[in-house]
Every structure is written in structure tokens, then in C-alpha cells.
Amino acid sequence: MSHDNANQGAKVGLSSDEIIIKGGKPLEGRIEVRGAKNLVTKAMVATLLGKTPSVLRNVPNISDVRVVAGLLALHGVLITKGEDADEWHFDPSNVEVAHKADIDAHAGSSRIPILFCGPLLHRLGEAFIPDLGGCRIGDRPIDFHLDALREFGAVVEKLPSGISLTAPNGLKGANIELPYPSVGATEQVLLTAVLAEGQTELRNAAIEPEIIDLICILQKMGAIISMEPNRVIFIEGVEELRGYDHKAIFDRNEAASWAAAALASKGDVFVGGVKQEEMMTFLNAFRKVGGDFDVQDDGIRFWHPGGDLKPVTIETDVHPGFMTDWQQPLIVALTQAVGKSTIHETVYEDRFGFTDALNKMGASIEVHPDGLADKARRVKRREFEQAAVITGPTPLTAADVVVPDLRGGFSYLIAALIADGESKVSNIGIIARGYENIIEKLRLLGADFVFEG
What is the pLDDT of residue 137? Predict the structure, then answer.
């Protein structure tokens, strides 16, 4: 974690960067979930492709959205708010080259600048990505992105300050096969191919609901994109695109996080704005653990029906598998299940570091850095996968913890909510990167906490 994460609270508009939570009180009530962080930020980038203004609704009030808004403004996009706070208007008619230092300063730890490349190459003939090395991007490679852009005809030059891209002969359709169905690389190809000359065939593409929603946006803009079987996407390049009017898909990650919090705290939480179809894989796991839910037209109610929670074995995977972002909050609930649960993490190589703090609070979680063999496995093993074995039930006791990352941070909040005593959770500004109005939502659900502000 980089040093610039030291005081995230101030950066995201929180009056404090720590919260003191008294555990033992079930979460009960209703909260609303707005647009998905992983769609909204990409939809904002897509506005660069349009000749006319775009309108995006259901935009969450999170810091990643503000970062992308700042980067768009640097490139000359005029951004205004609609009558509702979650409605944003984007006018890209005056897009221009931004100063490299400004991009670097504004991007901070965001990885979004990489997705500006295709649209900016189409609009301006050049693009620049600030240095994304070191702790800024962790082990997530940008090579998938750069290789794909080269296939379209981009010339990539690595500089000490970052990466410069040009397209001296324009961008042309390409045949691309991703080595892994990366969400980011799939978005890169989509945002580049729609205006590239000719046809693009993308194989081994990501097909997450957020990807499908982005395709819907691009189709509204005038793009020709067809989804084929077996993770194949065809894109026929068009000469120009117009703006769009779109309501963003809900945030699946936030929905699952609150569901896990309801289960762990023996609570009852209605998550508004959530749809069943995109949550099916999570709902199956939630039911297997012993949680219950009720799907309604305007959301899903999640609750602990009483009795013992059951151990489960889960393998994370790309969609339609179990999302990697879902396992961290669920692990806290699994510390209260009777028996041994196993989580096979196959998407990211370092997603279990947050369990150290949980063990200090009384959990029994053993991390296997090289993964575990299991004859019942359905997801293909990957070289860098890990596994965590959670033995429960174990009562948790309060502790002072520092948030390491977005999903791990929410897990610490859940742990504090069920622990005996008062816990201090610091660095909560990181959580606000992806969870809208986190403090207010805790209040709405009756959590017992003190927050300066």
C-alpha cells in the first residue's frame, strides 16, 4: 500500500478517517445501492467517443467517480449535474490534450487512465498514461491493454514519466484473443474497436454484467457489437458515434457486502435497487451458508434465519462464477459457521492479506499461498492462486485495525460489527472509494458506532 493512502478520509470528503464500532448489534433496516463503480467509471470514459452530449443516471457518490470526472475535465469535457444528484451530463465537444503532470496528479491510485487510450487516440491521435508502476497497480498487468492497442495499430513508447501512445495510421480492426478473460482488457478493446476501421473479433472476452451494460451503452451510441457463444465478441467499426442516455446497472459488489454484513451480524437488511439475475451465483452461496433472502421488485431482503451457519467451499472465478470481490466480506460470516470452509481464490494472487487482522480478532483462518488441490474443483487451477481455510465458529473480540484495501476494508467493518467490545477501524477513506455514503448507511441500519463528524 502506498504512502498516499495514509489519510484517505480527507481525500474522499469524510470528516475523519477512523470509526469506533461497538459490536454485537444486528444490522436491521433498508439501504439503497446505486450504479456499479465498475460500470459507471467506464461509461464516463465512453462519453469521449460521442459527437453529442451523454447523460448517465444512477451515478454513485464515490471518489473513483470524482477521479474520472476530474480526468475528463482535464481533457475538456464539460460536466454538469441534472436535477437529481445521481444524474450527470457530459459534453465532449471540446476535447483536447491534457498536460501530463495534471493527469498524473489527478489520477492518483486510479487505474482508469489506461482506458482513456482508445477514445483519445480516436479523438486526438495521441494519449498518455502516467506511471502506473509500483504499488499503484500492484500485480495487475497492463500488458493485456498495451498488446491489444498495438493490435489496433497504436505505437506504444515507454517513457520515464509514463507511456505515450500515437496512431500515425489510425486505428484498424483486429483479431484479438486475450490470454485471460480480463474485464479491463475487454473494456479496452470495446472502447477502441467501436470507431476502428473494419471488424474486430475478440476471443476469450469477459462477459460480466458490467461489460454487457457497457456494450448496451455503446450500442445506444451507434456501435455495432454482437455477442457470440464461447466468450466471442464481434465489433464492426463505425465512422462516428453519438451521445447516450443510460441508467447504470446496480453495484453487485456493494449488494453482496451488505448481504454478508446482515448474515454475520444476525441481522435483516433490505438492499434496494438490486436485481436477482446478476446476483444468482452469490445467492446460491448465501443460501448454502445458511442465510435466507427474498427477491422483490425493488430489491432483495437478506437475513439470518437463526440456527447454525454451514461451512462451504467456494472457488472464485470470472463471470458467471463467484466474484473475487464477494469472498472477502463473506469470509467474516464464515468465521461463525460450524466447521471448515475453503475459499479457492483463482482471480487475484494476493487477496487474503486482510485475514491477518481477522485472526488477531480471534478468527481461525489459514492461508495456503500456493492453493490447495481438491478433486471436486470445477474452476481450472491457476499458477498464482491461493486458498483460505476458515474454521468456525470463533467469537471475535474487538481490535484496532487499519484498512488495507476496498473489499478487505468492508470486511473489517463487518468484523467490528460482530466483535465483542469496541474496535477502531482506521483508513476508512479507502472504503469510500467504492461504497457510497458508508457512514449514513451504517446509521440507517442501526449500527452502534462513533464517527467524528
Answer: 30
